[in-house]
Amino acid sequence: MITHKDSIHILIADDDEDDRAFFSDAMMELKMNNKLTLFNDGKDLMEYLANPDIVMPHILFLDLNMPYKSGFECLKEIRADSRFKEVSIAIYSTSSSEKDIEETFIEGANIYIKKPNDFTKLKKVIKEVLNINWQFHSSGLNKETFFFSI
Amino acid sequence: MRLYIKYDGIVACRVILQEQLERLDISYKLLELGEIEISNSVTKENLAQLQEALNKYAIFVVSNEKSQLIQKIKDAIVEMVYEKDKLPSVTISQYLSDKLNFSYGYITNIFSEYTYTSIENFIIIQKIERAKKLIIEDELTLTEVSYKLNYSSVAYLSSQFKKVTGLTPSAFKRIVDKRRNLSN
Amino acid sequence: MNFRSLYRNSQIFKIALGIAILVVGYIASVFYKQMQSLESSVNVITNATETQLELERVLSIISIYETNLRSYVITKDKSYLEHRFLRKGEIEMNFIRIKKLVANNPARSKDVDQLKRMIDYRFALFKETLLLAESKNPGKEQLIAKLKESSDFTESMKTFVYKTINAEGDKIKIHNDNHQFELQDSIISAFLLVILSLLILLLSFNKMNVDIKELKKANDDLQFLNHSFNNAEKIAGFGHWKIDLETKLYTFSDNFLRLLGVDPNKFEPTIENFSKHIHPDDVDFVIKSHKESLETLEPTSMMFRYILPDGDIRYIRSVGSFTRNSKGDMIKTGVNYDVSDQYKKTLELEENNKELKSINEELESFNNIVSHDLQEPLHKIQMFISRIEAKEIDLISDQGKVYFSKIKLSANKMQTLLIDLVNYSRTIKGDKVFKETNLNEIITQILDDLAINIEDKKAVISAAILPTIKVIPFQMEQLFINLISNSLKYSKDDVNPIISIFEEEIFENEIYESKIISNEEYCKIVIVDNGIGFKQEYSSKIFNLFYRLEKDSKYSGTGLGLAICKRIVENHDGFIQVSSVPGEGAEFAIFIPRNI
């Protein structure tokens, strides 16, 4: 049985250096047992995921607005590959438009996070997201209907 | 083509356990969900084989007593939410301490320690999961769903649904339907 | 159908005329037959009379002869016998005539034959008597006996003749009576014939008169119509044309030629002459399409340009279709009209449309800038503010802290403004999906979203049972969020805000901006608060974009909130009203049509 004592493997793709920094700082301050890998854009992420030898991540954070390959394109590609069907995908974007939320959910995202404007809030959001994702992983809940928007 | 299936995880799990135990010729007795009594004569190799076989189905043999208890708590909650057609009217603390023979304080503490969440939160998540299933099955109205899950009103169900998922029940339904259309 | 209309119907009239002619013909033939029988009656009567005469003449000859013979017997004077043979000859002549007269009557012929034999016998008796009288020694008794026999025979002969004469007389009488009848019939027939002919003549004449009148009226109408049509062509700026596919002859209306800019009297109507006036770039296509249509008999519709003699270019729409004329020949008729003005307007409109589209696109990209590109740096600023606040704030001087809090305030204000702008632009965009929505569900949702704010203000918000109506759900949500936030914001410091939301019946034809509305058409939702209120005179201004009543920084706002409300309500074809008394609170009323 996986317990929370096991490490959580997290990937994040965001072209904004500051946002990446905020995110890793927040993770650090949360002191959760995790392994965070950062990617500068969608293309980097997809190249990494193409490698068959990687440790499967538990959760993947995708910024929507990225050069070369948008978060939306990444989402579609990842969901088309059955290798990643157990991976939760979280959209991490400045946009809070209903259209973006609905479309990404339809395309297979599980979590939609509007980037908070407050660091404390960011920590809270990440904690909540990891928690709820954990519940879905550990309690055998239906991933097909796992949606969480915050 | 995609098939949409309805299944009972508990029944499926029991069948898998029976099959695997019989395959290895282990005499057994299924107790409550998540608990099996096996004879002491089972060899260590046999036990290892069983663990290996069950891991394929994401069924893990838990040895830690606290972990076992947490599993029992979860099972009791799942059973409460799913098995009984309508949730019990007694308080949840009463229900759980009666069922597990521990004080509720002990139960909540140990649960929070191991799961990052509270029992109350876990119950909410499970109830909303059930609500999701019922909404997707599309046989009951939202009012009926809220009654079935012991919510005082549709509005209360909706707001709790939104808290847990960030979506309204109707937006949720719409997304699931569109997703199905997309994959078909 | 009444008689008048029967009379007007020339088909029926023709049938009646035909019947009348048949009747006249019949009567005429009857009349002719009667005349013929009349003539034969006259013939029969004449015949009979002559027969009588001849017979009497024969008798008188016999009598004279007898008298002469007696006189001779008595006197022995030979002169009495002088005409003896002559007489016989006379009788022969008589008989020939009688024979002729009775040739058609076999019974009478027999009588005549018998008479002939009797006369022959009588003459034989004469001869015997004469021989007896001339003999030297005539026996007196013998002679007397002979004379007696003769006179007896004459008597019987007379009786026979008279019988015959009487028979002829009867015949005459019968014929005469018939003749009278026939004559009367003929007169009636003739009279009827004349009356009938006269009647037909009168009717025909009248009918002709009526027809001619109608024809004249129709002709007048046609002329008037033609005239009006020509006028209409002139006024509406179109001209018509036709080509007879049998004769290949073209006809162009005067105004058609006027549109071409040519003198109607000096234009020979041929397609070649016409095509000279079509723009060189269009002429091939126009003539080709037209000629093709003459083969396929498909209607045509095309647009091309004329070049007028003065060099002006006109845009022409031409439509043509096929029909048959009264002779059954196929003809193509059509109308050409000047659409230059419309065309130019359409071009202008298209141009404007394009401009509008690009403006819209700009607006859309502006929206994107606001909602995304502007938010990103702001998001960064706020994140860094929160970072400094958490970690570095102690290192800043007191003055620095004041500046820092101002920065934070401005950043937050900018964020509210951006959110409001995004919300406002969302009310303009097209994706408006109406859905049956329970307003109570929306309110519950909102109260949940605003929970912290409500808690802070210790506000009491009550919502009565609200209707389920067809609305754009997210916009309705926005509307109530803005109105409730507004009430919470402009609350009194010392009083707990109380906000009530309920549906109110529309009082008998409540008048809103001179529009009469009723409870059936609209549903009225009221939001009442006990806040600071405002002067009623500002009631319409507060819905204006960026209009702010309170400049006090305590009531921070963007001036967009109520403008968004107004837009949303207008998106639902409804309207919003507010009434307020300063210090006593405000009452917002929204009117949404029940059926959209």
TrEMBL record, chain A:
Modified residue annotations for 4-aspartylphosphate: D63
Record's keyword annotation contains Phosphoprotein: yes
Keywords carried by this UniProt record: Phosphoprotein
InterPro entries: CheY-like_superfamily, Sig_transdc_resp-reg_receiver, TCS_response_regulator
Gene3D superfamilies membership: 3.40.50.2300
Domain of life of the organism encoding this protein: Bacteria
Transmembrane segments: none
Domain Response regulatory: 9-130
This protein's name: Response regulator
